[in-house]
Amino acid sequence: MKIEIRPEHHKIIKEKFNVVAEIDARDFDRDYSILESLLLKHKRESYTIYDKFLISAMDINYYDDLLPCSILVINMIRIFERLDIPFFTLLFITTHNGIEKEFEIVLKDHPKDDRPVVLYTMISNANTPQTYDWIDYLETDTIERAGMCLMHMAKSHRVALYNYLIENNLDKQIAISQHFSNNYKQDIMDNYNELST
Amino acid sequence: MNYLLNTSPITTHNEQFGGTNPNIKFDKPTSNTKDELIERIDNKKQSKSLFGFEIKNKIDFYKYIAVDIVSESVFKYPYNYITEKTLKPLAHGRPFIIVGPVDSLKALNNYGFRTFSSIIDETYDSIKDDEQRFFAVCNTIKKFVDRPLVQVVDDVNSVKSTILHNQNIMRNLIQVETTSILKQINSYIGE
Q1: Quick one: B52 and B132 in the same domain?
Q2: B63 FRET partner, CA 20 to 30 A, in A54, B138, B151, B189?
């Protein structure tokens, strides 16, 4: 499932701003020339404070220990600058609580009145469906296992956790689901390739 | 700090979402082969991809477990990042332990959710060092589940009011967050 802005939030943004273009970070975070092309296509001579390029980053970002902030933020700012588009036209909505600090780092020497607008929300279409199955699980006489751990795709912390549980014989108490094999590196590359398509 | 001197986008990124911690020793599955891995699970009449025990009904599997050990999308990460993996046990009325970024529980507290410190050692949540936090949360898991099932169930029974409270927060979360977005926008445009 593609992680996107909740429709309620999308509606408010469209009501309050003139959205010049809507771009999902997931669509360009492996090839930033896509962002550059999209921005170039919709670039204008001038902008009001209501004109916004809506960029949503509801999924996880890439970080590198050598950089003080995400590759996404650095690259977005570089591309806006290169195309000579003012930063205030960037309306950035994200599930990353605190990412505005990254813009402050990158734009440290840039005028304060030309900053991106950063909206934070904890929820997206993926983590809050309209309705949950509100089953009364307060009954506890049905409990068969002390724990459950759904791991799905291979990631380093999940492989580490899985091995901890197995090595400590906790798989008797915990129902474990995992979708990775012993070829951890290959699993990660498969996941990467799957997400890229 | 001269990122803007070079205007070329960076084209490389971490091996994996959120990075890896080479200091964490369990960096490979312990089974030697995939067949062995599957066999270990099948020997217990379990399915590799069906939650480790025979599920009567996939939808309501939460009723068969006491605590959800949430392996979040990221672990080494600069922000708390709450996904559906954490919100599911909140909605479905089960305590949980988060294997995820630092301050994940704190973020939930800020939203009005209550966590389960009365029955689970939650000190792992505030440990900034990724390796230390990983082993701390593993110890928490072991301490909680490695007991007679009846004791675990008693613990779940003792936090029913917290579970109900969290479900009420969940029911209103979309509305609360929509109001929050509106406030943030109004603050920007001065309305």
Answers
A1: no
A2: B138
Q: How far is B41 from chain A (nearest CA, A)?
A: 9
Q: Give the range of the structural domain holding residue A113, as residue numbers without chain letter.
A: 7-120
User: How many interchain CB pairs under 8 A, A with B?
Assistant: 295
Nearest CB to A140 within list B10, B73, B156: B156
Looking at the structure, do residues A60 and A152 belong to the same domain, yes or no?
Answer: no
Q: How far is A165 from chain B (nearest CA, A)?
A: 8
Over residues A63-80, mean pLDDT = 91
In which domain, by residue range, is B46 found? 32-56
Are B37 and B95 members of one domain?
A: no
Minimal CA–CA distance to A107: which of A86, A135, A131, A134?
A: A86
Q: What is the token pair recorded at B136?
A: 């701390």
Question: What is the DSSP annotation of B65-125?
Answer: EEEEEEE-S-SS-SS----HHHHHHHHHT--EEEESSTTHHHHHHHTT----TTTS--GGG
| Contact between residue A140 and residue A119 where contact means Cβ atoms under 8 Å apart | no
pLDDT on residue A128: 75
What are the tens digits of pLDDT across the range A10-53?
Answer: 999 999 999 999 999 988 888 898 999 999 999 999 999 999 99
The one-letter amino acid code at A14 reads K
